[in-house]
Amino acid sequence: MRTKGVQNYPTMDQVVFGKPASEAVLAEAERVGAKRVFLVVSHTLNTTTDEIEAVRRQLGERFAGAFDRVPQHTTRTSAVALAKAAADVDADLLVAIGGGSVVDAVKIAAVCMEHEIFEEDGLDGYEINPAPGAFATAAKAFRAPRVRSVVVPTTLSGGEYNAGALVTDTRRDWKQIFHHPLMMPLAIILDPAISRHTPETLWLGSGTRAMDHGIEALCSPLGTPLSDAVVTEGLMRLARGLRRCKADPSDLEARREAQFGSWLSAFGLQTRVPMGASHAIGHVLGGTMGVPHYLITPVLMPRVLRYNRPATEEAQARIAAALGEAGKSAAEALENLLEELGLPRRLQEVGVEPADYARIGEIAVKSVFARTNPRPLTTAQEVVALLETIP
Questions:
Q1: CB 219 within 8 A of CB 322
Q2: What's the rounded Cα separation, in Å, for the pair 228 and 226?
Q3: Which one of 1, 326, 329, 352 has the fewest beta carbons within 10 angstroms of its own beta carbon?
Q4: pLDDT of residue 132
């Protein structure tokens, strides 16, 4: 039971739902008085559907340009290229339409525009570095970005609900965290119709990544009664929505339910409840090992739950019940759901071998989230021990 703590609230205006994405984007531009709206979009959506063109048409003279070259695991190189393209047309609002990489790109691009960082080396020192205690800060203080963003997510990962961005430094194959309160999007637009173009495995896998946020918030020693209640409801809605999406990918109400579940599951992350080992290690699996973001939770979280169980018994009972498996262990409940969804459950299935564990451990232990795990990870050997936990 939570007996002390602090409840934080984000610098975000609103979540919009029940309105087509193109109409909602225009309404947001009008609401904030934006005259030069720059779209940062999924390449697939831009080249194989008419969804982005519909947004362009709605914006009319407000449309300032578009960028669709953000790779998986957002890189510094793409971020500074995006920032330069947006700055060149005097963009006053960035609109992300796509998955988590596109979302992270607009967050960090806003910082690059503010500080005129148009070469990747220019981001050195802006990243979050581990420090003694529960939290960490960037090496240098920096001005708040004046150009803000609006996000239309097409996956369920939920990274749009927080003020941090994950950006991969390809020089070192290292995914880094950047954070400023005003990197938080002004608004998030939920439109289940636009998600119909998202491949099934990406949609379902990203839903499990959203679950990751809720699970780690529930298990965090620094959670709150409010975050516990909200993310528990989110896990319930996600489990229900994902099962329905698997049964019928065309079910828009199931997709809406999953979107609402992602929103609620992200509440802990949104209000700065620190994440744990799944994020510390997951960032390395993605940025260093190249594992797709949406496949990280299926292969990692059951191990994390087993490792953390001695310190999180009460939270894990709530997780199992939320997943519809009251009385079972949280790890078993999650594994059963993953099997229903047809997602991989072994590290080897996503190209990670035991020989990689030492390198993963060396990098993951440097993450602030290694320290905020319910059982803090302070050595590379402890990370390896977690990875060796038999699912």
A1: no
A2: 5
A3: 1
A4: 45
Calculated CA dihedral for residues 236, 238, 244, 245, nearest 10 degrees = 180
Q: Give the CA count within 13 Å in the CB-facing half-sphere of 179.
A: 20
Residue 250, classified by CB atoms within 10 Å of its CB into exposed (0-12), middle (13-18) or buried (19+), is exposed
Using an 8 Å Cβ cutoff, are 127 and 177 in contact?
A: yes
Residue 314 has pLDDT above 90, yes or no: yes
Q: What share of residues in the chain are helix, strand, coil (percent, to 5)?
A: 55, 10, 35
Contact 52, 39 (CB under 8 A): yes
Of the candidate CATH numbers 3.40.50.1970, 3.40.140.10, 3.40.1110.10, 3.50.50.60, the domain formed by 14-192 belongs to: 3.40.50.1970
SS3 299: helix
The whole-angstrom separation of Cα 67 and Cα 96 is: 10
- DSSP class per residue in 48-88: H-SHHHHHHHHHGGGEEEEE--PPSS-BHHHHHHHHHHHHH
SS3 label, residue 122: helix
Three-state secondary structure string covering 219-237: HCCCCCHHHHHHHHHHHHH
**Six-digit token pair at 327?**
């009385």
Residue 288 phi/psi, 5° resolution? Answer: -100, -45
Task: Tell me how many helices (H) and strands (E) the chain has.
Answer: 16, 10
The architecture that CATH gives domain 199-387 is Up-down Bundle (1.20)
pTM for the full predicted model = 0.94
Q: Residues 6 or more apart from 352 whose CB is under 8 A from it?
A: 285, 289, 291, 299, 360
Same fold, 14-192 and 199-387: no
Per-residue pLDDT reduced to its tens digit, 65-122: 999 999 998 999 999 999 999 999 999 999 999 999 999 999 999 999 999 999 999 9
Nearest in space to 319 (alpha carbons), one of 306, 334, 307, 308 = 334
Residue in 265, 261, 256 with CA at minimum distance from that of residue 227:
265
In angstroms, how far is the first alpha carbon of the chain from the final one? 28
Question: Please, what's the b/e burial string for 255-286 (b: 16 or more CB within 10 A of its CB; e: otherwise)?
Answer: bbbbbbbbbbbbbbbbbbbbbbbbbbbbbbbb
Q: Supply the pLDDT for residue 130.
A: 60
**Cβ pair 290, 351 in contact under 8 A:** yes
pLDDT band at 172 (very low <50, low <70, confident <90, very high): confident
